[in-house]
Amino acid sequence: MGEQPIFTTRAHVFQIDPSTKKNWVPASKQAVTVSYFYDVTRNSYRIISVDGAKVIINSTITPNMTFTKTSQKFGQWADSRANTVFGLGFSSEQQLTKFAEKFQEVKEAARLARDKSQEKIETSSNHSQASSINGTDDEKASCAGPANTHLKSENDKLKIALTQSAANVKKWEIELQTLRESNARLTTALQDSAASVEQWKRQFSLCRDENDRLRNKIDELEEQCSEINREKEKNTQLKRRIEELELELQEKETELIDLRKQSEIIPQLMSECEYVSEKLEVAERDNQNLEDKVRSLKTDIEESKYRQRHLKVELKSFLEVLDGKIDDLHDFRRGLSKLGADN
């Protein structure tokens, strides 16, 4: 009833394997609630976690405890009283950081509470010893009086308290030695755990390399599948091409049959071709003769044109001479007319 929760989070809980002190054993199948509790009456702090009806963590925090982060989301601490190591796996690095900070805060509070308790014990022990000495002096000074009995009873009580205090100190020394031995064992377990973490890291590296190799193999297989699909497409195209070629072959065979049928009339066509060739030769000879005649006619035309041009030149010169003669005749007529007029 005196305990109160001061911090709560959720995490996967693990405990170190007690036989190997290296491997982690899951204490919960899923993430569970992990809480810090403060006991007002005992002035102590505990970490408590319950999975259903099973208590999987009940760890009283002492100043000698240390919370260690072993990865970004995992942390652990050793409990000498429970003789085990607890591990917590968080869903995020922020949750781990908050839990570690709270652990350090609670650890410091536990240290202060222990120091205050030791101071009270030492003060009580010193007070008891002083009261015992004072009581003895008073008894020697006064052996009578009504206060003698009361002082004696008080002295007896103080002696009993001093004896109990000495016994408690001895008990605490034994418990402290036990805690130191347990702490040493837990430190060894923690070192083994760190070595186990290194081994896990190596195994993780090997697994990651194997994973990369498998991914590369998958990529190669996918590439091979792609090549197979491309080959299938090529085969499909080749099949279509073969079908087209078969159709073309059928068409060519049909054409060949037609050509064979046509070859039967080739002799008749050849005779007709010879007849046409003879006619063509005759026509070519006639054409040659006509071309010769045309060339002769062209020569005659050229000569006729030349003669016409020559005649035109001669006619032009004749006309010029005729014009001169006509002018002379006009001049002669005018001279005759003038002579007639004079006579």
TrEMBL record:
Biased composition (Polar residues): 123-135
Signal sequence segment: none
Record's keyword terms, sorted: Cell membrane, Cell projection, Coiled coil, Cytoplasm, Hearing, Membrane, Synapse
Location of this chain's protein in the cell: Cell membrane; Cell projection, Stereocilium; Cytoplasm; Postsynaptic density
GO MF annotation: an example: G protein-coupled glutamate receptor binding
UniProt-listed GO biological process terms: G protein-coupled glutamate receptor signaling pathway; sensory perception of sound
SMART domains: WH1
Transmembrane residue ranges: none
InterPro entries, A to Z: Homer, Homer_EVH1, PH-like_dom_sf, WH1/EVH1_dom
Regions annotated as coiled coil: 162-307
Top-level taxon of origin: Eukaryota
Any one annotated GO CC term: stereocilium
Stretch list, region Disordered: 114-150
Span of domain WH1: 1-110
Family stated for the protein in its record: Belongs to the Homer family.
Name the record gives this protein: Homer protein homolog 2
UniProt lineage: Eukaryota, Metazoa, Chordata, Craniata, Vertebrata
